[in-house]
Description:
The structure is a single chain. The protein is α+β, with helices and mostly antiparallel strands. The chain contains five helices and nine strands; from the N terminus they run E-H-E-E-H-E-E-E-H-E-E-H-H-E. The chain has helices spanning 27-39, 73-83, 136-144, 194-206, 212-221; strands at 2-10, 45-47, 56-66, 88-96, 108-116, 128-129, 169-177, 180-187, 236-242. Strands 1, 2, 3, 4, 5, 6, 7, 8 and 9 form a nine-stranded mixed beta sheet that branches. A hairpin with an 8-residue loop joins strand 2 (45-47) and strand 3. It is globular and about 60 Å long. The protein starts with a strand and ends in an 8-residue tail after the last strand.
Amino acid sequence: MARYFIYLSYNGKPYCGWQIQPNGITVQEELETALSTLLRSSISVTGAGRTDSGVHAHLMVAHFDFDENRIDCVQLQDKLNRILPPDIAVHFIRPVTSEAHARFDALSRTYKYYIIDHKNPFLKETAYYIPRQLDYVRMNEAAKILFDYIDFTSFSKLHTDVKTNNCKIMRAEWIKENETWVFIVQADRFLRNMVRAIVGTLLEVGRNKLSIDDFRKIIELQDRGKAGTSAPAHALFLYNIEYPESIFLT
Protein backbone atom coordinates (compact mmCIF):
# COMPACT_ATOMS: atom_id res chain seq x y z
CA MET A 1 0.00 0.00 0.00
CA ALA A 2 1.51 3.32 -1.11
CA ARG A 3 0.61 6.65 0.44
CA TYR A 4 0.55 10.04 -1.28
CA PHE A 5 0.20 13.66 -0.23
CA ILE A 6 -1.93 15.79 -2.52
CA TYR A 7 -1.56 19.58 -2.48
CA LEU A 8 -4.56 21.60 -3.61
CA SER A 9 -6.33 24.93 -3.35
CA TYR A 10 -9.99 25.84 -3.57
CA ASN A 11 -12.52 28.61 -3.51
CA GLY A 12 -14.72 27.68 -0.57
CA LYS A 13 -17.80 29.68 -1.57
CA PRO A 14 -19.74 26.81 -3.23
CA TYR A 15 -18.88 24.26 -0.53
CA CYS A 16 -20.10 23.34 2.93
CA GLY A 17 -16.50 23.21 4.12
CA TRP A 18 -13.82 20.59 3.62
CA GLN A 19 -15.21 17.60 5.48
CA ILE A 20 -17.85 15.28 4.03
CA GLN A 21 -21.29 15.79 5.52
CA PRO A 22 -24.78 14.58 4.60
CA ASN A 23 -26.41 17.90 3.80
CA GLY A 24 -24.15 19.60 1.30
CA ILE A 25 -21.32 19.35 -1.22
CA THR A 26 -17.82 19.45 0.26
CA VAL A 27 -14.28 19.66 -1.10
CA GLN A 28 -13.35 16.28 0.37
CA GLU A 29 -16.29 14.66 -1.39
CA GLU A 30 -15.35 16.17 -4.76
CA LEU A 31 -11.73 15.09 -4.40
CA GLU A 32 -12.61 11.54 -3.34
CA THR A 33 -15.03 11.17 -6.25
CA ALA A 34 -12.44 12.36 -8.76
CA LEU A 35 -9.66 10.13 -7.38
CA SER A 36 -11.95 7.10 -7.23
CA THR A 37 -13.02 7.67 -10.83
CA LEU A 38 -9.49 8.00 -12.19
CA LEU A 39 -7.91 5.22 -10.13
CA ARG A 40 -10.91 2.90 -10.54
CA SER A 41 -10.90 2.14 -6.85
CA SER A 42 -12.67 3.45 -3.76
CA ILE A 43 -10.34 6.19 -2.51
CA SER A 44 -10.73 8.09 0.76
CA VAL A 45 -8.68 11.17 1.60
CA THR A 46 -7.67 12.56 4.96
CA GLY A 47 -7.16 16.32 5.15
CA ALA A 48 -4.67 18.28 7.22
CA GLY A 49 -7.65 19.85 8.96
CA ARG A 50 -11.14 21.19 8.41
CA THR A 51 -12.17 24.44 6.83
CA ASP A 52 -15.65 25.71 7.58
CA SER A 53 -18.33 26.47 5.02
CA GLY A 54 -17.23 29.34 2.78
CA VAL A 55 -13.59 29.34 3.93
CA HIS A 56 -10.96 29.17 1.17
CA ALA A 57 -7.66 27.33 0.93
CA HIS A 58 -4.64 28.79 -0.78
CA LEU A 59 -3.06 25.48 0.20
CA MET A 60 -4.67 22.35 1.64
CA VAL A 61 -2.89 19.03 2.01
CA ALA A 62 -4.52 15.61 2.17
CA HIS A 63 -3.28 12.04 1.99
CA PHE A 64 -4.66 8.95 0.29
CA ASP A 65 -3.60 5.33 -0.14
CA PHE A 66 -3.47 3.24 -3.31
CA ASP A 67 -2.63 -0.45 -3.32
CA GLU A 68 -1.55 -0.95 -6.93
CA ASN A 69 1.55 -0.01 -8.90
CA ARG A 70 3.29 3.30 -8.34
CA ILE A 71 1.23 6.27 -9.51
CA ASP A 72 2.47 8.70 -12.14
CA CYS A 73 1.92 11.78 -9.97
CA VAL A 74 2.24 14.34 -12.76
CA GLN A 75 -0.22 12.51 -14.97
CA LEU A 76 -2.69 12.05 -12.13
CA GLN A 77 -2.47 15.75 -11.24
CA ASP A 78 -3.26 16.69 -14.84
CA LYS A 79 -6.22 14.32 -15.04
CA LEU A 80 -7.61 15.49 -11.70
CA ASN A 81 -7.55 19.10 -12.83
CA ARG A 82 -9.47 18.12 -15.95
CA ILE A 83 -12.39 16.56 -14.07
CA LEU A 84 -12.50 18.52 -10.80
CA PRO A 85 -14.78 21.58 -10.61
CA PRO A 86 -13.11 24.85 -11.69
CA ASP A 87 -12.95 26.10 -8.08
CA ILE A 88 -10.65 23.22 -6.99
CA ALA A 89 -7.07 22.96 -8.30
CA VAL A 90 -4.46 20.28 -7.61
CA HIS A 91 -0.90 21.65 -7.57
CA PHE A 92 1.14 18.48 -7.13
CA ILE A 93 1.16 14.99 -5.64
CA ARG A 94 4.08 13.48 -3.71
CA PRO A 95 4.72 9.93 -2.45
CA VAL A 96 5.33 9.76 1.28
CA THR A 97 6.20 7.12 3.85
CA SER A 98 3.42 4.70 4.74
CA GLU A 99 3.05 6.22 8.23
CA ALA A 100 2.94 9.85 7.07
CA HIS A 101 -0.25 11.66 8.07
CA ALA A 102 -1.51 14.92 6.57
CA ARG A 103 -3.03 16.03 9.86
CA PHE A 104 -0.79 14.66 12.60
CA ASP A 105 2.58 15.24 10.92
CA ALA A 106 1.97 18.92 10.18
CA LEU A 107 4.53 21.11 11.95
CA SER A 108 2.49 24.27 11.51
CA ARG A 109 -0.47 25.78 9.73
CA THR A 110 -0.83 29.38 8.58
CA TYR A 111 -4.06 31.28 8.00
CA LYS A 112 -4.63 34.70 6.48
CA TYR A 113 -7.67 36.91 7.00
CA TYR A 114 -8.25 39.83 4.60
CA ILE A 115 -9.93 43.18 5.30
CA ILE A 116 -10.56 46.16 3.01
CA ASP A 117 -11.75 49.60 4.12
CA HIS A 118 -13.14 50.66 0.73
CA LYS A 119 -15.66 49.18 -1.66
CA ASN A 120 -14.05 46.92 -4.25
CA PRO A 121 -16.26 44.67 -6.41
CA PHE A 122 -13.30 42.43 -7.28
CA LEU A 123 -12.47 41.65 -3.64
CA LYS A 124 -15.97 41.40 -2.23
CA GLU A 125 -15.88 37.58 -2.14
CA THR A 126 -12.40 37.23 -0.63
CA ALA A 127 -12.07 40.15 1.80
CA TYR A 128 -14.21 41.59 4.60
CA TYR A 129 -15.34 45.13 3.78
CA ILE A 130 -15.35 47.35 6.87
CA PRO A 131 -16.07 50.96 5.80
CA ARG A 132 -14.33 52.63 8.72
CA GLN A 133 -10.80 53.09 9.96
CA LEU A 134 -9.60 50.48 12.43
CA ASP A 135 -6.71 50.97 14.86
CA TYR A 136 -4.28 48.36 13.56
CA VAL A 137 -1.56 49.47 15.98
CA ARG A 138 -3.78 48.51 18.93
CA MET A 139 -4.86 45.35 17.14
CA ASN A 140 -1.22 44.32 16.77
CA GLU A 141 -0.55 45.07 20.43
CA ALA A 142 -3.44 42.79 21.34
CA ALA A 143 -2.29 40.10 18.89
CA LYS A 144 1.08 39.89 20.68
CA ILE A 145 -0.78 38.75 23.81
CA LEU A 146 -1.61 35.48 22.03
CA PHE A 147 2.03 34.41 22.47
CA ASP A 148 1.61 34.45 26.26
CA TYR A 149 -0.99 31.65 26.29
CA ILE A 150 -1.58 28.12 25.06
CA ASP A 151 -5.22 27.51 26.08
CA PHE A 152 -7.56 29.15 23.58
CA THR A 153 -10.91 27.87 24.80
CA SER A 154 -12.27 31.42 24.50
CA PHE A 155 -11.79 31.24 20.73
CA SER A 156 -13.03 27.69 20.17
CA LYS A 157 -16.36 26.51 18.86
CA LEU A 158 -18.30 24.87 21.68
CA HIS A 159 -18.83 21.11 22.04
CA THR A 160 -16.04 19.94 19.75
CA ASP A 161 -14.48 16.49 20.03
CA VAL A 162 -10.87 17.57 20.69
CA LYS A 163 -9.03 16.40 23.81
CA THR A 164 -7.28 19.71 24.44
CA ASN A 165 -7.70 23.38 23.53
CA ASN A 166 -3.96 24.03 23.75
CA CYS A 167 -2.20 25.52 20.72
CA LYS A 168 1.24 27.04 20.24
CA ILE A 169 1.00 30.36 18.39
CA MET A 170 4.13 31.04 16.32
CA ARG A 171 3.07 34.19 14.47
CA ALA A 172 0.20 36.64 14.87
CA GLU A 173 0.24 40.08 13.24
CA TRP A 174 -1.62 42.50 11.00
CA ILE A 175 0.24 43.68 7.91
CA LYS A 176 -0.69 45.81 4.91
CA GLU A 177 -0.64 44.06 1.53
CA ASN A 178 -1.39 46.53 -1.25
CA GLU A 179 -4.95 47.72 -0.56
CA THR A 180 -5.83 45.09 2.03
CA TRP A 181 -5.02 44.54 5.68
CA VAL A 182 -4.11 40.94 6.42
CA PHE A 183 -4.07 39.10 9.72
CA ILE A 184 -1.45 36.34 9.53
CA VAL A 185 -1.54 33.67 12.21
CA GLN A 186 0.61 30.56 12.40
CA ALA A 187 0.34 27.77 14.98
CA ASP A 188 1.03 24.10 15.45
CA ARG A 189 -2.74 23.47 15.42
CA PHE A 190 -6.01 25.40 15.42
CA LEU A 191 -9.35 24.83 17.11
CA ARG A 192 -12.68 24.90 15.28
CA ASN A 193 -13.58 28.50 14.40
CA MET A 194 -10.47 29.75 16.23
CA VAL A 195 -9.08 32.17 13.65
CA ARG A 196 -12.43 33.81 12.91
CA ALA A 197 -13.10 34.19 16.65
CA ILE A 198 -9.68 35.78 17.22
CA VAL A 199 -10.19 38.15 14.29
CA GLY A 200 -13.68 39.09 15.46
CA THR A 201 -12.35 39.91 18.91
CA LEU A 202 -9.38 41.86 17.54
CA LEU A 203 -11.81 43.91 15.46
CA GLU A 204 -13.50 44.97 18.69
CA VAL A 205 -10.09 46.16 19.88
CA GLY A 206 -9.61 48.02 16.59
CA ARG A 207 -12.98 49.72 17.05
CA ASN A 208 -11.98 50.77 20.59
CA LYS A 209 -14.79 48.68 22.07
CA LEU A 210 -12.28 46.47 23.91
CA SER A 211 -9.04 47.46 25.60
CA ILE A 212 -5.77 45.56 25.37
CA ASP A 213 -6.35 44.34 28.93
CA ASP A 214 -9.88 43.25 27.98
CA PHE A 215 -8.40 41.07 25.24
CA ARG A 216 -6.05 39.41 27.74
CA LYS A 217 -8.89 38.82 30.20
CA ILE A 218 -11.00 37.21 27.49
CA ILE A 219 -8.28 34.63 26.88
CA GLU A 220 -7.85 33.99 30.60
CA LEU A 221 -11.59 33.51 31.19
CA GLN A 222 -11.59 30.51 28.82
CA ASP A 223 -15.19 31.30 27.90
CA ARG A 224 -16.26 31.57 24.24
CA GLY A 225 -19.20 33.74 25.30
CA LYS A 226 -16.83 36.52 26.40
CA ALA A 227 -15.04 36.81 23.06
CA GLY A 228 -16.21 38.71 20.01
CA THR A 229 -18.46 37.50 17.22
CA SER A 230 -16.71 35.35 14.63
CA ALA A 231 -15.58 37.28 11.57
CA PRO A 232 -17.24 36.24 8.27
CA ALA A 233 -15.91 33.08 6.62
CA HIS A 234 -15.44 34.43 3.08
CA ALA A 235 -12.29 36.43 3.94
CA LEU A 236 -10.40 33.55 5.58
CA PHE A 237 -7.78 31.46 3.77
CA LEU A 238 -5.85 28.43 4.93
CA TYR A 239 -2.58 29.66 3.48
CA ASN A 240 0.20 27.15 4.19
CA ILE A 241 1.03 23.88 5.94
CA GLU A 242 4.55 22.75 6.77
CA TYR A 243 5.85 19.19 7.16
CA PRO A 244 9.19 17.56 8.00
CA GLU A 245 11.09 16.65 4.85
CA SER A 246 11.78 13.19 6.26
CA ILE A 247 8.27 11.95 5.39
CA PHE A 248 8.67 12.52 1.64
CA LEU A 249 10.08 9.80 -0.60
CA THR A 250 10.93 12.06 -3.52
